[in-house]
User: Fold Aldehyde dehydrogenase domain-containing protein from Pseudozyma hubeiensis.
Amino acid sequence: MSATNGHTSEGSRLKDPSLFNTKIVVGSRRLDSHSNKTFDVVYPGDGKTVIATIPECNAQDVNDAVASCRETFATFSQTTARQRSDMLRKLNDLTLANIDDLATLIVRENGKTRAEAVAEVKYASSFLAWFANMAEIGAQGETIAAANPNMRIHTMRQPIGVVACLLPWNLPLAMATRKIGPALAAGCTCIVKPAGETPLSTLAFAELVKRAGYPDGCVNVVTTLDNVAEVGKAICEHKHVRKVSLTGSTRVGKLIASQSAGTLKKLSMELGGNSPVIVMNDANLDKAIEGVLMAKLRTSGQTCVAANRILVQNGIHDKFLAALKEKIATYKQGDGEDDSVKLGPLITARAVEKCRAHVEDALSHGATLAYGPSPPPTPSSGGFFYPPTILTNLTSSMLISSEETFGPVVAIRRFETEEEALEIANDSDVGLGAYLFTTDLRIAARMTAKIETGMVGVNTGMLSACESPFGGVKESGFGREGSKWGMEEYQIIKAVTTDIS
Ligand SMILES: NC(=O)C1=CN([C@@H]2O[C@H](COP(=O)(O)OP(=O)(O)OC[C@H]3O[C@@H](n4cnc5c(N)ncnc54)[C@H](OP(=O)(O)O)[C@@H]3O)[C@@H](O)[C@H]2O)C=CC1
Ligand SMILES: O=C(O)CCCC(=O)O
Assistant:
């Protein structure tokens, strides 16, 4: 890669440069990898500036990190739920106190706009606050009415052990706290692997974990880009890792599941989506446009709940399209630090290429380009940008109907009846999010019950909140994050039976 090496000055962008960390975390130590190799983190906004050089880990680094997590688990698992609640509150205070620096790191490693990065830190913080509250509530056991009068049965909830948190690059800090927060609340210790593209916010967060007073080894971090196959396998096959939580693609989810089978780990899989949006004739047009743009363009279209197939009923189709074109034209694309910019770049040149391939495939199968450049642009040297694009006349035969695009491409399909919309929406191997716009409560009640996804937004383009269970069905995975169920994923239920005769 041709690169401008700018990372020596990168830390000076932060108010607290000591949050700019480029070493892995193993217990009290900040280390290079056993491999002595490194990889570069590149700023997606120009596609060439190297903002950090990070250790390329191998299986030995994983083993060291797990050993440290295991050693700490012996004592950390014995802390009280109230102590863990207090520690998480302190960690949340530190996260919010460093919101500007964390947002800067997210803008630089991911490319999203500063407003989005600040929103992400707040979202990340909400999981810490939520699980600080849940630490005590979620630790409660139950008394069971035993059939045998001589027996007393009660349950206790205990931390499952060392957990692995495998993070995506699209919301690097929020997905870190959505996993690390409940793990620490439950009394687990964590080996965290951020995505290779976005390790900096995780490494900064690990420093805050230390400052919050957590024992060394509660949160260890290993980093990799090119050696992810070896590192991922070492984590999944390690007998002392008892649980893996992944947010990533369905392809990688299947790999992790098969690699974890030999040690029968508990798994949480938050995988890819292909979210349908259904806009009914009676929808409030302003709300539908606002919701579609939110669901489509957040993080430049790179979320697993991004609207991928926009199904619009015939009676409102043309009005909807005209309003959408007008509104999308106001989305300025560019450098995330520019306040007037609403859309940042994509994460890599590969992501730009995926958008181009989806648009080209749709056009070759009869779609119409309603908005955006023609021909579809290829990755250029000026950053990983793909311009906002609207396609109409989407059909099932197009790639975009079966694969998430992960970019700012809005693909619209007409439908006539409620049944037809449901059939198209459910014609997918995955089922994570779905959105419905209607002002008729009867339609909403019927359709939300029949949509095959883990989450449905009605008259909103935003499904995500720390208090709401996040997760999917079908090949979007299993397990729920956030909410009152999120901590259970990191616990075992132990039943204790006592003979009192
Ligand atoms: N649900 C979600 O939030 C996400 C969905 N995706 C989907 O995947 C598509 C492709 O994106 P891309 O980044 O290439 O996706 P990949 O499937 O290559 O990677 C997704 C994540 O899994 C990690 N990973 C890859 N291989 C392994 C492995 N063998 N063991 C453990 N972890 C692994 C990656 O880490 P690393 O970056 O270090 O390679 C990354 O964090 C996107 O267009 C999108 O559709 C992608 C990311 C997040
Ligand atoms: O998997 C993702 O894309 C990240 C989660 C998005 C969200 O929480 O809204």
About this structure: Residues 1-6 have pLDDT under 50 and may be disordered.
